Amino acid sequence: MRCAGERSWQLSVGDDTSLTAALVVRDAAGIVVPRDGGREPADVPPPLLDPPPHDDVLSPGERAAAGPAWLAWYRALVGLAVRDHHDPPPPGVGRAWQR
């Protein structure tokens, strides 16, 4: 994933079980992720290449309503994954290095 002026990153299914589970839930339930200015949010991967079986557990309205909560959950999981893989600053180096 690349955003202008930001670092690029890549996510592969299986890299993180929580992120993979969130993507499987999204695709299996057909959750509609809220659009950002008419486009897919830049920080959300596209549908899985090998999608899980679709389950009609949610109505179309419920799918759209679940989107904002799913997006908040996914972003929280990404934050946890980044935090868990973030290298601690070297001894004696302050907050500037962390930023």
Number of separate strands: 0
* Largest sheet, strands/sense/barrel: none
Q: Please, how many helices?
A: 3
Low-confidence stretches: none
User: Level of helix content?
Assistant: 40-55%
* Strand/helix succession: HHH
Q: What's the shape? A: elongated
From the N-terminal CA to the C-terminal CA, the straight-line distance is 20 Å
- Tell me what portion of residues adopts beta-strand conformation: under 5%
Q: What's the mean pLDDT score?
A: 79
Structural class: mainly alpha
Radius of gyration over C-alpha positions, nearest whole angstrom: 16 Å
Q: Can you put this structure into words, describing what you see?
A:
There is one protein chain. This protein is mainly α. Helix content is 43%, strand content 0%. The radius of gyration is 16 Å and the shape is elongated. The relative contact order is 0.16.
Concise summary:
The protein has 99 residues and is mainly α. The protein contains three helices and no strands.
Topology at a glance:
Layout: H1 17-29, H2 60-85, H3 95-98
Helix pairs in contact: 1-2
Annotation keywords:
single chain; 99 residues; mainly alpha; 43% helix; elongated
